[in-house]
Design a protein that fits this description.
The complex is a heterodimer of chains A (467) and B (201).
Chain A: H1 10-16, E1 19-22, E2 27-31, E3 34-37, H2 43-51, E4 62-65, H3 82-98, E5 101-103, H4 113-120, E6 128-131, E7 145-148, E8 158-162, E9 165-172, H5 181-192, E10 200-205, H6 207-210, H7 214-222, E11 231-233, H8 238-244, H9 253-263, E12 276-281, E13 288-290, E14 298-300, H10 314-327, E15 342-345, H11 347-350, H12 353-363, E16 373-376, H13 381-389, H14 392-399, E17 402-403, E18 424-427, E19 442-445, H15 448-457
Parallel strand pairs in A: 3-4, 3-6, 4-5, 6-7, 9-10, 9-12, 10-11, 15-16, 15-18, 16-17, 18-19
Antiparallel strand pairs in A: 1-2, 2-8, 13-14
Helix pairs in contact in A: 5-7, 12-14, 12-15
Chain B: E1 6-14, H1 21-24, H2 44-47, E2 70-73, H3 85-93, E3 97-100, H4 105-112, E4 117-120, H5 123-133, E5 140-144, E6 149-151, E7 157-159, H6 164-172, H7 176-182, H8 184-197
Parallel strand pairs in B: 1-2, 2-3, 3-4
Antiparallel strand pairs in B: 1-5, 5-6, 6-7
Classes of the chains: A alpha/beta (467), B alpha/beta (201).
Bound molecules: iron/sulfur cluster.
Iron/sulfur cluster binds at residues 67-68, 112-114, 133, 135, 347-348, 408, 411-412, 429-430 of chain A.
């Protein structure tokens, strides 16, 4: 292992401990400790292995789960859609053939891959993790270097990569009530833009980040990719260790003590160099709503939809106009005047127990507006069980929410959960791209409490003044 | 993987910023378990009307660009989902080179695994190439990877930068898996050392 004398960032340390080989131009072969697999991006990789008559190099370091495609209604009688069924069956078959642990659609451990990894203790500090899914950045909340990859790389235990640059985003101050991790990350993306993090690994630091729960840190790291970053990182601390201790795949006994010794070194050294620094004050952040078709199109709940005429360049003006046309909005409209048809609460961004608790607290004793259809999709089977144990499902159902089976659902609308053309949705997911939640569907990204309040009122409201 | 040395073909202008992989290949095409045949889904939400017929306004539906092999596009091309279906769809349609001012990281890497050359140029060069591409059937460009230059229809030359290692791999048609196989010994050594240092990992 490399022990350079110069102060290093957290990213530098994890990187150094995983380099297998370096080419003269700096391109490296990086060792991958953990591999997550889901049904949509993996079939071609397994097919490649089969054709080349090769095995998965380390099946015990791989975990497979179905999430993207599965229906969120009762699955005990099988999956209706023939293409989805084929993908699910193909993953089951591949997992069996290659000796990979697999959680099928009926397993209580099944759920969105990025929720399942941490839940099982598969995600550990200081490890390198890949998955054929861009939101693999979620696992960075544990101080793991986690990248989304394509499909082809699934076939080896290494990744060819050049090292990214270091960026640090420091969020100091205390979040006001009603403002959440989701608002922090949306604000960051609004600040740096969707390509602001391209070529970087972002480390999130500062007292507001330290104050967040593991769930909140996952929300932040999850959307690093929306800011263009290769990965997001939060240095592990006591909260991280407490979360992991006793999880099924976390180390036990002596192995735990040994791991802890290493994990405690996983902090950025004082004086380490960052190529870019961004600072934010949590105390100044409002609840955020996206108005357009890019996650950088953010505005405060107290704000208005932007005017194309105010754009700094012709290209930007055209981009705003295109987004407004798609979203069916006019420049100058008040955000609180925007009416919703649908509400989606779930996804690997905000489908964890803490998110559901926040929603339950907000909607208890209230009713979803008659003009709104609202669904809650727990991020995993274990989240669902926990929520039911706490009686949250009863609160949701009494308020008129649709309580469903775990999966990606309307985050990407590959299953039956999707918006009809022109429908407008407040969503706790991470992407508001054209067509993301259904052909011609209109998505506004918000935090779970903001989505909950919008479901009740039928339009966006400022949760800081709402009860 | 097909090697990439020089390519002479029609360049299509796609003057949109932040073209994401959902736009390149919408999710309904992701239900396949194959890598081939994705070309029909390429840009489908812009390329086809709701009834499935061609949208004649979309650039790749114009007669001059139906056989385009090069795409000149706005900033931050390929952002969003990591789906390797995006380069597969481009390739299946016949596009082997994309030129932009910047690319999203995962998409950029995915291109090299599939023999597609992503070229990053300055805004001034992109504006010029976008103009060239707008000339329709006359918009033939030559991409010369060994010389690292783009030669436009009027003889203008734009130089570009690329990692020497990436260039070497493309010119020789080496994909990542082939390359990592060559390093099998180094990987085995690493694993041995790792088993001691971080047995819990
Ligand atoms: S919940 Fe959404 S973002 Fe997360 S893995 Fe599923 S589709 Fe991707």
């Amino acid at each position: 292992m490399v022990h350079a004398a110069a102060p290093r960032t957290l990213y530098d340390k994890i990187w150094d401990d995983h380099v297998v080989d370096t080419q003269p131009d700096g391109t490296c072969l990086l060792y991958i400790d953990r591999h997550l697999v889901h049904e949509v991006t993996s079939p071609q990789a397994f097919e490649g292995l089969r054709m080349a008559k090769r095995k998965v190099r380390a099946p015990e370091k791989t975990l497979a789960v179905v999430d993207h495609n599965v229906p969120t209604t009762d699955r005990s009688k099988g999956i209706d859609d023939p293409e989805s069924r084929t993908q699910v069956e193909t993953l089951a078959e591949n997992a069996r053939e290659f000796g990979i642990e697999y959680y099928n659609e009926l397993d209580k451990r099944q759920g969105v891959v990025h929720i399942v990894g941490p839940e099982q203790g598969f995600t550990l500090p200081g490890t390198t993790i890949v998955c054929g899914d861009s939101h693999t950045s979620t696992h960075g909340a544990f101080g793991a270097l986690a990248h989304g990859i394509g499909t082809s790389e699934v076939e080896t235990q290494t990744l060819i990569q050049k090292k990214a640059k270091n960026m640090r985003i420091t969020v100091d101050g205390t979040l006001p009530a009603g403002v959440t991790a989701k608002d922090i990350i949306l604000s960051i993306i609004g600040e740096i833009g969707t390509s602001g993090g391209t070529g970087y690994v972002m480390e999130y630091a500062g007292e507001a980040i330290r104050a967040l729960s593991m769930e909140g840190r996952m929300t932040i790291c999850n959307m690093s990719i929306e800011g263009g970053a290769r990965a997001g990182l939060v240095a592990p601390d006591q909260k991280t260790f407490d979360y992991l201790k006793g999880r099924p795949k976390a180390p036990k006994g002596m192995a735990w003590d040994m791991a802890m010794k290493y994990w405690e070194t996983l902090v950025t050294d004082a004086g380490a160099h960052f190529d870019r620094e961004v600072k934010l004050d949590a105390a100044n952040l409002p609840p955020i709503v996206t108005w357009g078709t890019s996650p950088e199109d953010v505005v405060s709940i107290t704000g208005t939809v932007p005017m194309p005429s105010a754009a700094p360049s012709e290209q930007k003006k055209a981009a705003i106009q295109r987004a407004l046309d798609y979203m069916g909005l006019k420049g100058g409209e008040k955000i609180t005047d925007i009416k919703l048809d649908r509400v989606f609460i779930g996804s690997c961004t905000n489908g964890r127990i803490e998110d559901l608790r926040a929603v339950a607290k907000a909607v208890e004793g209230k009713k979803v507006a008659s003009t709104v259809s609202a669904m809650i999709v727990p991020g995993s089977g274990l989240v669902k069980l926990q929520a039911e144990e706490e009686g949250l499902d009863k609160i949701f159902k009494a308020a008129g929410f649709d309580w469903r089976e775990p999966g990606c659902s309307m985050c990407l609308a590959m299953n039956a959960d999707k918006l009809a053309p022109g429908e407008r949705c407040a969503s706790t997911s991470n992407r508001n791209f054209e067509g993301r939640q259904g052909f011609k569907g209109r998505t506004h990204l918000v935090s779970p409490v903001m989505a909950a309040a919008a479901a009740i009122e039928g339009h966006f409201v400022d949760v800081r003044k709402w009860a | 993987m097909q090697a990439f040395k020089t390519l002479t073909g029609v360049a299509a202008p796609l003057d949109i910023m932040n073209v994401d992989t959902d736009m390149i290949i919408p999710k309904q095409y992701l239900k396949t378990i194959k890598r081939t045949g994705l070309g029909t889904g390429l840009f489908s939400e812009m390329r086809y009307k709701e009834d499935g017929s061609d949208n004649s306004d979309f650039v790749l539906n114009k007669p001059a660009y139906r056989k385009a092999e090069i795409l000149v596009a706005g900033d931050n091309f390929g952002c969003g989902s990591s789906r390797e279906h995006a380069p597969w769809a481009l390739l299946d349609f016949g596009i082997r080179c994309v030129i932009s001012t910047s690319f999203a990281d995962i998409f950029y890497n995915n291109c090299f695994k599939n023999g597609i050359l992503p070229i990053t140029v300055s805004q001034a060069d992109l504006d010029k190439l976008m103009d060239d591409a707008r000339r329709g059937a006359n918009a033939t460009m030559t991409i010369d990877l060994p010389a690292q230059e783009i030669r436009g229809p009027d003889g203008g030359v734009v130089k570009f930068e690329i990692d020497p290692f990436r260039k070497h791999c493309l010119i020789n048609g080496l994909d990542d898996i082939g390359l990592t196989m060559e390093k099998a010994n180094a990987i085995a050594d690493f694993e041995k050392q790792n088993a001691n240092a971080r047995p819990w990992a």
